[in-house]
């Protein structure tokens, strides 16, 4: 009896000490920041305090603001929180806030091709989704990878003049485990060694090549990397804090330990820039924190995810029907037939054809992969032929030809599509 009581008392004391101890230790560490300002200490304290400042900058609803969420989550992930755990609810709630931001945007425009989302912004969210151990292929039923690939096509004229955003999209696809087309790898440095946006551009171009690791592009990769190293100023910076952050990220992404020294003064400069007395902007914290922590975008999701809690985040995805008509009155076979195809939210018209092909024996088709997506060559053995100047034209619900191909079209409930065998 006495023994149990004594044991209880010991457990109680241990509990109290367990609660108090981390507080004492924390305070000692913060004090050490000012007491012993060695380079390493300064760097570590800056990460710690920068993370704290970033968390304090959240709004009433625990968000940082529309379209900023992913970059903030990425900064926290790279600087401190390898894994976002349920046990840290005040942090985890901001992951939910990121999801809400993205879901809200998708609910307004399923393809996210607006200027705000279609020019690189979705890439950050795909990386943010990866960083938080969620699946970008099935984000509440939405295939974010299909959408991002689509942006390479529909935003191509913008991306051709902005290789920074272009490379960012490739990095996100690469980190999501997607193969990258060679024409995309050609595009991001048409003239290796020349970068419209200087170090900033060279850094993301380099990280994109380094992530993909295709030996054919080794020269272009090296050109970008050498450009970064040569852009270093005498005072150790690579431009302003934002450019310095990207250059330092690229150097750490290279994994070349001998180059670490090259980043020291740059890191010192960034550490200074986020001192509390400077009241740094959120955007500055987002840029410099990963670099000060000696991480890069390529480190995203490199840590093992704990097994997902089944069924807590992904509700079953609603499905809907679209009508697909195949029409041919230009050959001897007069053909006019309509099917209903099932589609999950976020899937493309091409997916509808695949679903139909897999579930209905009266429908079959063939397609080829072209640079702009899937090209339908044959439906129910009616094969398009260049010699006969025939192709499968796709008409939308309003009867007019679609602007993009089947793999870039995201149908809604009740849409009707006609595949019309046509002579050009
Ligand atoms: C470092 O040097 C560059 C080029 O000389 C200059 O533009 C920049 O302002 C300097 N930065 C700092 C922090 O001294
Ligand atoms: C094929 O059908 C279209 C649309 O119904 C029609 O305009 C066209 O005249 C027809 N062509 C032939 C050769 O019958
Ligand atoms: C259509 O289904 C058949 C099997 O029934 C399969 O062999 C073929 O690859 C499918 N075609 C496409 C384009 O998915």
From TrEMBL:
Task: Give the InterPro entries listed for this entry.
Answer: Cbl-bd_prot (IPR002157), Cobalamin_Transport (IPR051588), Terpenoid_cyclase/PrenylTrfase (IPR008930), Transcobalamin-like_C (IPR027954)
Q: Under the cellular component aspect of Gene Ontology, which terms does the record hold?
A: extracellular space
List positions binding cyanocob(III)alamin.
Answer: 200, 240, 375-376, 402, 424
Gene Ontology MF annotations: cobalamin binding
Query: Where does the protein end up?
Result: Secreted
Its primary localisation, in coarse terms, equals secreted
Tell me which species this is from: Mytilus coruscus (Sea mussel)
Kindly list the biological process annotations in GO that this record carries: cobalamin transport
- The name of this protein is GIF
Domain spans labelled Transcobalamin-like C-terminal: 346-422
Disulphides: 174-211
Sorted keywords for this record are: Cobalt, Disulfide bond, Secreted, Signal
Q: Pfam families from the xrefs?
A: Cobalamin_bind, DUF4430
Q: Where is the signal peptide?
A: 1-18
